[in-house]
Amino acid sequence: MELGVCLSEKEGVSLDELVIKVRELFETKGMAGVVTTVLGLLDDLLCQQLQHGQPHPLVTPCCLVPRYEYHGRRGRRVRSSCGRLHMHWHRLRCQCGKTIVPLRSVLRLVPWQAKTNELERMVIDVVAEQSYRRGSRHLREIGGVPVPRSTEHRWVAQSLCDDLPAPAATMDVLMADGTGFKRRPQPEEKITNRGEVRVALGITRSGETVPLGAWTDRTWEDIGKLLKRPSGESLAHVLGSDGEPAIAEHLARLTGTHQRCHWHQIHDLNYTLWEDKAPRDERRAYQQQLAGMIGIELPAEDFDRVKDADKSALTERVARAETELSSLAAELLTKGYEHTSRYIAYAKDRLFSYVRFWLQTGVAVPKVTSKLERLMREIGRRLKRIAFGWSDAGAAKMTRIIIKRIVRPADWKRYWEKRYQCSGTVSVSLRGVYAV
Fold it and tell me: What is the pTM for the complete model shown?
């Protein structure tokens, strides 16, 4: 390696400036130059071996007795996190008339591949956290990797990293929710710019979270048909939701029972009372009263160790709570709060499904959808607070990427390791830096 350095010892040298200059040099030319030099040496070695009749396991022979000769050398440019790699690989021509590119076969590159997989992952990780515009600027200014915004769009759209495998067995809980975003309507569409992404995930007996999908062009009815098992087997034992009627109508049939989220039930009570023009102090009082009625906790010990008398007391507590809810609905109706009264009466039979399921099976399922809500908060931050003007396909794909990165980090890492095809066949070490 030949490195030219010019310093002024009379005027003084800034250590920071020296570090910045060396880093800029290696980010723009140094690292890419090292990789390109190694590839050139590997290309020469492969061509020499093949010309001397030494077969290579990754280079498929074109005939029974191949005999190769040089047939030109072409330049290729590949983007990577260490800069643009300006490769020049040889093409060999066999006596049978066919040509091969040994270096491309050994590197396991697809035809016309213009980027490395590690750079694609870096870009997708960045734009999953911030906008395409900011991501492009940060990659260029901080990482020293200039990737245009349009190129980021294309890479994300073409990537298959968002594939979500279907669950193999019946899950304990199915959760579903949706959030809005500002979409970009097409000129021929006579609709508003409001879009909605709908998300479904499951929780297994071991507590593992399984993402089921994210859709922007499907209704909950369509999603219910997509998630329905061909065998007719239940997708999950319990459906957990915030009470949206469409979710309850089309997804509850995929499960054995429906559990309304307690947090949403108390939170949304304030909204229904506001619609009925109830005063603020009264709304707060009814929220506290509802929280006391439905706040039934399951025993902390194992199901087998709970006494039968305690289980019977828990059943009586549920029956008493449902009676109190009926009385509350009647009281609200007498005050003229018809909307809130219907809201309480409709949810009464779905607020204690988690207790009944525990009494039947001994399995504790959540009474709130907090696990899904935390995920929806991250999705909403990326789709609504950071950017707007999404296409339906782009919003759905970004949602699936966020879900997979957060919910299934091991699957996310495994996917990219498979793409990298790392097998421990590369070892690089710095033997020293000397001044001669």
Answer: 0.85
